[in-house]
Amino acid sequence: MNNITTYYIDLENKIEVNRVKEFLNKFNLDYNLVDATLVIKNENQNIIATCSKLNNVIKCVAVSENYLNQNLLNKLITEISRLIYSQGEKEIFVYTKQKNKYIFEDLNFKSIVTTDNVVFLTNNYDNYLKYKNYLLKSITADKTCILVMNCNPLTHGHAFLIDYASKNFEKVLIIPVKEDVSLFTYNERQKMILTYIKSFKNVDLINGSNYLVSNVTFPSYFLNNENEVVLSQAEIDAKIFVNLFESKKRFITRLVGNEPFSRTTNLYNKVLDKILNKNEISFLEIERQKINGEVVSASQVRKNIYENKEWNYLVPNTTIKIISKINLNKRMIDKNIYKKN
After folding, report:
1. Cα–chain-centroid distance for residue 110?
2. What is the rounded distance in angstroms from the CA atom of residue 230 to the CA atom of residue 311?
3. Matching Gene3D superfamilies, A to Z (predicted)?
4. What angle do CA 222, 223, 229 make, to 5 degrees?
């Protein structure tokens, strides 16, 4: 094994990328949504093992059958974990097929949920349990509504859902999406929610995490992607929600607004409905708020901001006050998201 080489491929190099895709095809694995790919090649410069990552998620892992006893998987995981930790992450996740579960368990990963297709594991299960206990302690009423929201930014549409939930449930818990992949940061979106719900006596803001609608559990939520990928990731995300709240499932309802525009969110809502009902958790989908006959959406607000069009009428005053303190032109340039996201 002295003649093997290990290196990260250039993701802009189509030849290298295609070679990885061809190698993974032999294992019925799709190659998508990655930000780094590590390969091991033999003396003939053929790929014999590979793994990739997206942020702190390890995926697309495969080792050639002829090299299974050469400890290559351990080599791959050790190296790509080093890269993930060097980027400031404190927890690593893995997507893999069920037959590979025991391999990662030997490397100190533990399963969070499984589906017919994949297993989702973490190397910091205590952190997952800590967040789960935090959520369960937040359920203090017999009739509790859970809202998982991006609020990028908080619009009249989000406000409509919050108002509806407050009037129809004893307690409302809002869990904001934690990702910072678009125009407004997690902290800014938290402030938008906090300032809006200040007058509500039965609405609380809960900390977001990597475990619900994130680039970890549901990366295609933030991109347009193939249906099969979206459905698979939505199933993982929905099953994590079930796992997190299962012991208090009789007390909760997951509330969402219907989605006439985003194919990804529409598919996600359908998967959520199916899995939650199967696990005896109430699911409620209501019509979205409309202004001048048009459904209010955060994406429309961002689009109007990018195109320098009127957007204030789509959001409450509490949101306007927060956005007014942000240099939007500088933000769009700094984050390189002009007319995107």
Report:
1. 19
2. 30
3. HUPs
4. 105
Burial 127-152 (b: 16+ CB within 10 A, else e): ebeebbeebeebbeeeebbbbbbbbb
Query: How confident is the model over 122-167, as pLDDT tens digits?
Result: 999 999 999 999 999 999 999 999 999 999 999 999 999 999 999 9
Q: What are phi and psi of 55, to 5 degrees?
A: 60, -115
DSSP 259-315: -SS-HHHHHHHHHHHHHHHHTT-EEEEEPPPEETTEE--HHHHHHHHHTT---GGGS
For the cut 50, the answer to whether the pLDDT of residue 220 exceeds it is no
Q: Residue 23, by phi and psi: left (phi above 0), alpha (psi -120 to 50) or beta?
A: alpha
Q: Which residues contact 13 (CB under 8 A, 6 or more apart)?
A: none
H or E stretch including 58?
strand 57-63
CA-to-CA distance for 150 and 154, rounded, in angstroms? 8
Tell me the domains of the chain and their CATH numbers. 5-123 (3.40.630.30), 128-334 (3.40.50.620)
Contacts for 86 with CB less than 8 Å, ≥ 6 apart: none
Tens-digit pLDDT profile for residues 73-111: 999 999 999 999 999 999 999 988 888 888 899 999 999
User: Is 80 exceeded by the pLDDT of residue 235?
Assistant: yes
DSSP conformational letter for 112: E
State the Cα–Cα distance between residues 75 and 69, nearest whole angstrom.
Answer: 12
Reading the block at residue 201, the tokens are 């006596």
Residue 217 confidence (pLDDT): 61
The pTM (predicted TM-score) of the whole model is: 0.87
Query: What whole-number distance in Å separates Cα of residue 338 and Cα of residue 341?
Result: 8
* Of 242, 247, 236, 243, nearest in space to 214 by CA: 236
Residue 250's closest CA among 171, 329, 139?
139
